[in-house]
Design brief:
The chain is mostly helical and 354 residues long. It folds into two domains: 101 residues, no CATH class; 236 residues, no CATH class. Helix content is 65%, strand content 3%. A hairpin with a 4-residue loop joins strand 2 and strand 3. Helix 3 packs across helix 5, helix 9 crosses helix 10 and helix 10 runs parallel beside helix 15. The radius of gyration is 21 Å and the shape is globular.
């Protein structure tokens, strides 16, 4: 026990120091932009050489280790080793992965997140509607009009998605991450997740089962995290902005569609009449992809409702992640994702001014 406590002291002190110093923006920025960036870049380069998700492998091994520790509960060394491994990993994750939550936003110097007017919201929503309508038929479709681009093709094309947007945001980091398909994609859907970035492995993992039309935007979102964008609202913004400026048809369309979803939802809440006018001009292809997306998630909810155990797991996972986000400076928890609306509308206003 004495030896266990001795080994436990360093990661606990590291975690305590993180939460003591992280609110100091300069400390968080130094951690995120220096050794944090080096770790993410190096880890991403190494794990990109492997055809599977190291994140998923580590999660599976950790679960097996936990089960073994419970079964062999009398062997305290096994349980102690598990606790130490998790604690050291958590301490590293805080400094390498979470510092960015407390650092000045990556969009500083270009955008202010100043808040927007209803007129700017309507203008941005129309911009994304027109972009989605224009690019909807530039991607492969089935005979009945369904989206028809494979997961592998989307991943293959993702390497250049940030080439156009990166020079416009000098604080945006570099990345060598290659998106990975999760074998547990079905479980991810059941818990409402479309992707996950893990800083310790530098991997941008995606749910390969999610509606395909929005997968490219999800890939770009996770790649934003690999470039040091920690907050979910900013990652949504950068993912969508990277897509629509990429010149890659499948990413352009997916970005316009994803942005339209967020802006359309915000417009519906702010000005329903303007939303109905906006949606009345969706093309048939856009309308089809939005319906496919809505139907997919409605079916997931129905499956969860029919399976109380899975519903409980989903609720627990989302509650835990909401708490994680709040503990790292995202006071609105899971609602933070939707806060990309102001960033998108401000960015569109700047583009139109220029």
């Amino acid at each position: 026990m004495k030896r266990f406590l001795t080994f436990l002291v360093p990661p606990v002190l590291a975690a305590a120091t993180f939460y003591l110093l992280a609110p100091v923006g300069s400390v968080a920025e130094a951690a995120s932009r220096s050794f944090g960036a080096s770790w993410r870049l190096t880890a991403g380069r190494l794990t990109s050489l492997l055809p599977f998700s190291v994140t998923e492998l580590l999660a599976a091994l950790l679960i097996l280790w936990l089960v073994f520790a419970i079964v062999r509960i009398r062997h305290l060394r096994i349980l102690g080793a598990l606790i130490l491994t998790v604690t050291y990993g958590a301490a590293l994750f805080l400094w390498f992965g979470c510092a960015g939550y407390f650092a000045p936003p990556v969009y500083d110097g270009v955008l202010t997140n100043r808040g927007i007017t209803t007129a700017e919201l309507i203008s941005a929503a129309e911009y994304f509607r027109d972009g989605a309508n224009r690019t909807a038929n530039s991607v492969s479709r089935t005979a009945d009009g369904g989206f028809n681009v494979s997961v592998d093709e989307i991943i293959l094309l993702s390497g250049d998605v940030y080439d156009a947007i990166a020079p416009r945001f000098p604080r945006l980091g570099k990345s060598k991450a290659v998106p990975k398909k999760m074998l547990s994609s079905g479980l991810m859907s059941r818990t409402g997740f479309t992707g996950v970035y893990f800083a310790l492995t530098g991997e941008a993992n995606v749910n390969a089962d999610m509606p395909r039309a929005l997968l490219a935007a999800t890939v770009a979102h996770e790649l934003a995290h690999s470039r040091g964008v920690a907050r979910e609202d900013a990652a949504n913004f950068f993912g969508i902005a990277a897509c629509v400026t990429s010149g890659i048809p499948v990413f352009e369309y997916s970005g316009y569609l994803d942005g339209l979803l967020y802006l359309g939802n915000a417009l519906y809440n702010a000005e329903p009449a303007a939303y109905y006018a906006l949606s009345a001009e969706y093309s048939d292809a856009v309308r089809r992809d939005l319906k496919d997306n809505s139907d997919y998630w409605a079916e997931i909810l129905t499956k969860n409702d029919d399976n109380p155990a899975m519903a409980a797991v989903s609720a627990a996972v989302n509650t835990a992640y909401d708490g994680f986000m709040r503990s790292n400076g995202q006071d609105n928890g899971l609602k933070t994702y939707g806060e990309c609306v102001d960033l998108l509308a401000e960015w569109i206003a700047l583009r139109e001014d220029n």
